[in-house]
Design goal:
Order of helices and strands: HEEHEEHHHHH
Structural class: alpha+beta
CATH class of the largest domain: Alpha Beta
Radius of gyration: 23 Å
Largest sheet: 4 strands, antiparallel
CATH superfamily of the largest domain: Homing endonucleases
Helix content: 40-55%
Strand order of the largest sheet: 1-2-4-3
Number of helices: 7
Distance between the termini: 56 Å
Strand content: 15-25%
CATH architecture of the largest domain: Roll
Low-confidence stretches: none
Shape: extended
CATH topology of the largest domain: Endonuclease I-creI
Number of domains: 2
């Protein structure tokens, strides 16, 4: 989930993505041959500090450095890639920068938002924070993280005997292998 940007931050992000960004909407095919939409926002550049600041503001992922070579084999500057590809993150992020974008990219963002509302998530689960956000959608907000931790704690308590038995068996086999190896 993307945090709420101030108007100044939203304008800065919009300006950066207007010049260096890319917004994608493409269609993938399921096993049953039906199509579903995939979404993304990217920014690729050689300024690592700018990409890191974008990541701090908007979340997503950063990849790099990626080394580029010219067609003549000369090494170029290292490149860094910021990506925001989760539907939940994009549905929070895109409306915040939309007022600051120029007409061509505004139209693309509006199309992405409309498509998100018309098509449910690929796995068919409509999700909300704290219910399925962490496990199925990778949301790391405080609500989803706490719900995931609580769920895991409950699972561990309910399965403690089975887990302890499995761990004892694992340790027994490990000791047996060490004894055989030392012979």
């Amino acid at each position: 989930m993307t945090r709420r940007l101030t108007p100044t931050e939203a304008a800065w992000v919009a300006g950066l993505l207007e010049g260096e960004g890319c917004f994608t909407l493409y269609w993938s095919e399921r096993k049953d041959k039906s199509l579903y939409p995939r979404f993304g926002a990217q920014c690729n550049m050689t300024d690592k500090d700018v990409i890191e600041h974008l990541h701090e503001l908007c979340g997503g992922t950063v990849q790099g450095p990626k080394i580029k070579y010219t067609q003549h084999g000369v090494r170029g500057k290292d490149q860094w890639l910021w990506t925001l590809g989760r539907r939940a993150g994009l549905s929070d992020f895109l409306p915040q920068i939309l007022p600051y974008m120029a007409s061509r990219r505004s139209a693309k963002i509006a199309l992405m938002l409309t498509t998100m509302s018309e098509y449910p998530p690929r796995d068919g689960r409509a999700w909300e924070h704290g219910v399925s956000g962490y496990k199925y959608h990778g949301c790391k907000c405080a609500v989803c993280t706490k719900a995931h931790t609580d769920h895991y704690r409950t699972y561990r308590q309910a399965n403690r005997d089975r887990i302890n038995k499995r761990n004892r068996e694992h340790m027994r086999l490990k000791r047996q292998q060490q004894q055989e190896a030392s012979k």
